[in-house]
Amino acid sequence: MIEVRDLHMHFGGFRAVDGASLTLEQGTITGLIGPNGAGKTSLFNCIAGVLTPTSGQVLFDGEDITGLKPHHLFAKGILRTFQIAHEFSSMTVRENLMMVPAGQTGETLVNAWFKRKQIAAEERALREKADEVLEFLTISHIADLKAGEISGGQKKLLELGRTMMVDAKMVFLDEVGAGVNRTLLYTIGDAIKRLNVERGYTFCMIEHDMEFIKQLCDPVIVMAEGKVMATGTASEIMSDEAVIEAYLGTGVKNKKPEGAQ
User: Fold this and answer.
1) From 74, 96, 141, 229, which residue has the greatest number of CB atoms within 10 Å?
2) Does the pTM exceed 0.70?
3) What kind of architecture, by CATH, is found in domain 2-87+165-248?
């Protein structure tokens, strides 16, 4: 579905992404891990149109989408969430969902005056869709709360709900579990699994919680110093000596036994 070919993202002399190549297969939940500064978020931003890469290609179902802006990718069904949720705090949770679909009739002043029946019909349909999403995510009880008043974990669920309002094909999740309590993390993980299995969503997620990665992701891709250094199952990755070296600075083979001087 997504193929990244020899991608580079340079900031002056700093190479945040330094020749990364990878493939995200349709129907998978791919984990993207690596130490801080490995280039994970920069890679995400290049794929999702937030940054224009210095060189390299990004293909979506064979189409070159390198450098396309986020709103163009949105129209193709490629969405991303952010580590810090970007909600409209003064609007209700339901209203945050209802405003997601593009091209709504009521977006222009002329239509607001002359197409009121059409706008009302659209709003009813959007409200029904939003309520369906809230029920799917088991957060119907916060539908009428201001989005600025809900917890961090609930905001992450709201971000996931936004992707459901447009039936996304490819979703990039940036540390969806960061700062979330274990109960809500389980709810988020269950929603991701169900969207993948029941609705065919393809996910790629940056995450530092390896237990969360192990429960959800296959395959797992490891980045270090701007490059892809390993790909495999979570179990394979967690026992890979080179990955341990990248994360901890020392491999298990070099670890001294207890009591050694």
Assistant:
1) 96
2) yes
3) 3-Layer(aba) Sandwich (3.40)
